[in-house]
Design brief:
The protein is α+β, with helices and mostly antiparallel strands and 240 residues long. It has helices at residues 29-35, 61-72, 119-135, 144-148, 151-165, 172-184, 191-198, 202-214; strands spanning 14-15, 44-49, 54-59, 76-84, 93-100, 105-110, 138-142, 189-190, 218-220, 233-236. It has two domains: 8-151, Trna Endonuclease, Chain: A, domain 1 (3-Layer(aba) Sandwich); 167-236, Arc Repressor Mutant, subunit A. The longest helix is centred in the middle third of the chain and has 17 residues, at 119-135.
Length: 240
């Protein structure tokens, strides 16, 4: 199973408050994010969907990861973000309405596992279940483990890492300092801590860590469960 070549989602994702308000989010996106208990909304993001031929925006990195998966999965025929379950005044939304290649339709919602059993979440899922049953659709709740361990998501993320790595090449001395710091640690160390201990910039650390990870010399211990960043845990892949 190969990722879609040239997927816009791997090329033009923008994350951060600097982009709030321009361009306008898809209808209902901001209301949906504010109505649905998500364990903290996180940053606003947007990207151009090659599948839908329009921009999509939302809140939270886990939800962004979900749409990366929807955008790139060849087993999905099409999808609609922010599917309205109940009209005003309640305005409950499912995060996505998905049509699979075999014609199956699913209402998919995304929640962190830590809040998937909260009362407000269960109320929302009950509304979603009733809507799905009424229309002969399926219902699916996806957590960070489902999304970030998904084969399509991982293949696309791994394909992006070497491309990001080409943007910056540290000196050989800097590389030795960074690798030596990782090897000298008894346990995994975060990228931020690795920069502080090695005397390198975080940009240097990310470039070296990405290259060594793709060549199986370093491990990113929590890459399957959290978004890649300065808190990612790095360890040596070579047994002592």
């Amino acid at each position: 199973m190969q990722p879609l070549s040239g997927s816009a989602v791997t090329q033009s994702v923008r994350v951060g408050s600097a982009h709030i308000g321009t361009p306008s989010p898809s209808p209902g996106a901001e209301r949906s994010a504010l109505k649905q208990p998500f364990g903290g909304l996180g940053p606003r993001w947007e990207f151009y969907s090659a599948r839908l031929k329009r921009r999509i925006s939302g809140f939270g990195l886990l939800l962004l990861d979900h749409f990366v998966r929807l955008e790139c999965d060849p087993n999905i025929r099409t999808y609609k973000p922010w599917f309205l379950l109940l009209p005003e005044p309640n305005q409950f939304f499912a995060d996505s309405w998905v049509t699979l290649r075999d014609g199956t339709i699913e209402l998919q919602s995304v929640r962190f596992s830590s809040c998937s059993s909260d009362a407000a979440v269960l109320e929302h899922l009950g509304i979603q279940k009733a809507c799905a049953a009424k229309n002969g659709w399926k219902q699916k709740l996806l957590t960070e483990c489902d999304i970030r361990n998904d084969e399509v998501y991982l293949r696309n993320c791994h394909a992006m890492l070497p491309w990001l790595n080409e943007m910056h090449t540290p000196s050989p001395d800097r590389k030795r300092a960074i690798i030596g710091t990782v090897v000298g640690e008894e346990r995994a160390v975060t990228i931020g801590r690795l920069a502080a201990k090695s005397g390198a910039t975080e940009q240097d650390v990310v470039a070296i860590v990405v290259r060594e990870y793709t060549q199986h010399r370093l491990l990113l211990e929590d890459i399957h469960t959290r978004h890649f960043g300065r808190g990612t845990l790095v360890a040596s892949a070579i047994s002592a």
